[in-house]
Amino acid sequence: MEYRPAYEKEYDTIYMMGYDTWSEGHSVEEYLSICRNSKKYKSGRWFVLSEDGILRASLLIHSFELWGNRVVRGIGSVATQPEFREKGYGHKIVDSAVTDLTGRENTSIIFLYSDIRPDFYMKHSFVALPAAYQTARNSLLMALMLPLYDESIIEEYRDKIPKYF
User: Fold this and answer.
1) Closest-CA residue to 59 (of 113, 109, 105)
2) Neighbours of 125 (CB within 10 A)
3) Terminus of the chain with fewer CB atoms < 10 Å: N or C?
4) Beta strands across the sheet bearing 127-128
């Protein structure tokens, strides 16, 4: 299995991984057009998990302003090819991203907004932020902080918490 940056030629395949969840009734062509022109999708770096040359899962990594000396990133748009769901690929790509971000990139805070199944991310040590920090409707703001979750840091940089991404 390989975790790596996505190639631009793979973007439509990546976008289609989330079609059944995020298309909001749009046709395939409408949905792809929305994705191709999305500021959110253009502002991050796509990563994929592939096996035997076949894309299994993808996610988007966002970079945010430093919090003092803390590197802050966000994980978004986590998706698995429908035919490979419930086989561990979603967990594997999140594990790979967290390992890469906290290791090679020395990230100390990773945010994400969980639109579905927060328990999935809790298995990866993400915690839900208290209600006072929740600003997105129908999505739960979660964070993974190293070495340990520290609400005083969250409060100190409250105005820099990334909005839904």
Assistant:
1) 113
2) 15
3) N
4) 2-5, 45-51, 54-67, 70-80, 107-114, 140-145, 127-128
**Residue in this structure with the two tokens 């932020």, named with its chain if needed:** 129
The answer to whether the beta carbons of residues 112 and 164 sit under 8 Å apart is: no
- Determine whether 148 is exposed, middle or buried from the number of CB atoms within 10 Å of its CB (0-12, 13-18, 19+): exposed
Report the C-alpha gap between 81 and 59 in whole angstroms.
12
In sequence order, what are the residues at sequence separation of 6 or more whose Cβ sits closer than 8 angstroms to the Cβ of residue 22? 31
Placement of tokens 């100390």 in the chain: 108
Contacts of 45 (CB under 8 A, 6+ apart): 5, 60, 61, 63
pLDDT in tens, 81-111: 999 999 999 999 999 999 999 998 899 999 9
Please state which CATH class domain 2-160 belongs to.
Answer: alpha beta
User: How many helices and strands, by DSSP H and E, does the chain display?
Assistant: 7, 7
Q: Are 109 and 98 in contact (CB under 8 A)?
A: no
Contact 117, 21 (CB under 8 A): no
Rounded mean pLDDT of 41-61? Answer: 97
